[in-house]
């Protein structure tokens, strides 16, 4: 019987490949957030865009944290959040050029997502997520 793979092993395998995952994800994120608003479907649930921002930047935060050198948890979360803040700020500032609205609450949702994503990576890295397939 083959050994059971764990979520941690899977994510460590992804970590080894993350040097290209992060830039690819950033390109996808930039294209997704700069798609002209007039061709997007209207928002059917109020505030759903904030949930999407938290999820998108949660993945970004996870990928950034995976690329950082191992250090204390607080340093990892702060550095990840600072990097994501820079990316999110640039994203929000440039959106009006693509017929999109700059929204400070989107930036806040980005920060929350990045912090959650980095915290998830820290839990995985420490072995606190013993989830098996």
UniProtKB/TrEMBL annotation:
Membrane-spanning parts: 20-39, 51-68, 74-93, 105-124
Domain of life: Bacteria
Keywords: Membrane, Transmembrane, Transmembrane helix
Coiled-coil stretches noted in the UniProt entry, renumbered to this chain: none
Pfam family, any one: VanZ
Signal sequence residues: none
UniProt keyword Transmembrane present: yes
InterPro entries: VanZ-like
Keyword field contains Transmembrane: yes
Boundaries of every VanZ-like domain copy: 27-122
Alphabetized PANTHER family for the sequence: DOMAIN PROTEIN, PUTATIVE (AFU_ORTHOLOGUE AFUA_3G10980)-RELATED
Protein name as it appears in the record: VanZ like family protein
Organism: Posidoniimonas polymericola
């Amino acid at each position: 019987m083959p050994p059971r793979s764990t979520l941690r092993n899977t994510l460590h395998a992804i970590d080894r490949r993350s040097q290209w995952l992060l830039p690819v994800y950033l390109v996808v994120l930039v294209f997704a957030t700069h798609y002209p608003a007039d061709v997007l479907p209207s928002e059917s649930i109020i505030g759903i865009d904030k949930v999407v921002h938290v999820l998108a930047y949660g993945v970004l935060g996870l990928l950034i944290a995976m690329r950082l050198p191992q250090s204390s948890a607080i340093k990892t979360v702060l550095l990840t959040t600072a990097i994501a803040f820079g990316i999110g700020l640039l994203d929000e500032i440039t959106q009006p050029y693509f017929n999109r609205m700059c929204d400070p609450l989107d930036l806040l949702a980005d920060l929350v997502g990045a912090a959650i994503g980095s915290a998830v990576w820290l839990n995985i890295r420490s072995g606190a997520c013993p989830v098996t397939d």
